[in-house]
Amino acid sequence: MKKVAILQSNYIPWKCYFDLIASVDKFILYDDMQYTKNDWRNRNRIKTAQGVQWLTVPVKISGKFGQRIRDVEIVGSGWSQQHWKSLQTNYRRAPFFDEVMALLEPHYKTGRYQRLSELNHGLIEAISGYLGI
Q1: Are 73 and 60 in contact (CB under 8 A)?
Q2: pLDDT along the chain (133 residues), means of 10
Q3: Hey, which of 60, 97, 124, 129 has its CA 20 to 30 A from 24?
Q4: What is the number of alpha carbons within 13 Å of residue 108 lying toward its C-beta?
Q5: How much is the pLDDT for 57?
Q6: Nearest Cα to Cα of residue 12 among 47, 37, 53, 44
Q7: What integer pLDDT is reported at residue 77 of this predicted model?
Q8: Which residues, 6 or more positions from 122, have their beta carbon under 8 angstroms from its beta carbon?
Q9: Separation of alpha carbons 70 and 130, rounded Å
Q10: How many CB atoms lie within 10 A of CB 5?
């Protein structure tokens, strides 16, 4: 019997998200669901010396009620530099920092993503690959 997990994509998912991926034979990203505003799809929190900081990917939602996650467009490009700088500033002393940041850098520096789902998939695949899952 094969185990399958189906979830919507999230921006920089938490550890248990990857534990779930590792525990199944097949993992499916289901971004045909309706996008939910103010959710983990386009934002997440990081720990900083000053407390929790939100990292939010700006998306176009005005007049798009009911759109699917895979159709949500990213707005602007300044967010990626701000997120990159926040990650560097707050995690530069963490073990494996250089290794992990080299893995994430192409996802923040290239500006290649136009849709939120593409960004999330890219990050999830890169992190999963790094973890060997």
Answers
A1: yes
A2: 96 96 97 92 96 96 87 93 96 95 93 93 96 95
A3: 97
A4: 21
A5: 97
A6: 44
A7: 82
A8: 107, 113
A9: 24
A10: 16
List, as own/partner pairs, every contact residues 70-78 make where C-beta atoms lie below 8 angstroms and the sequence separation is at least 24, other chains included: 70/31, 70/32, 70/115, 70/117, 71/35, 71/115, 71/117, 72/35, 72/41, 72/42, 72/115, 72/116, 72/117, 73/114, 73/115, 73/116, 74/113, 74/114, 74/115, 74/116, 74/119, 77/111
**Cα 47 to Cα 51: distance, rounded to the nearest angstrom:** 6
Encoded tokens for 2: 């094969």
DSSP character at residue 76: -
Looking at residue 111, its pLDDT comes to 77
Rounded to the nearest 10 degrees, the angle between the axes of helix 78-91 and helix 97-109 is: 170
**Cβ–Cβ < 8 Å for 28, 35:** no
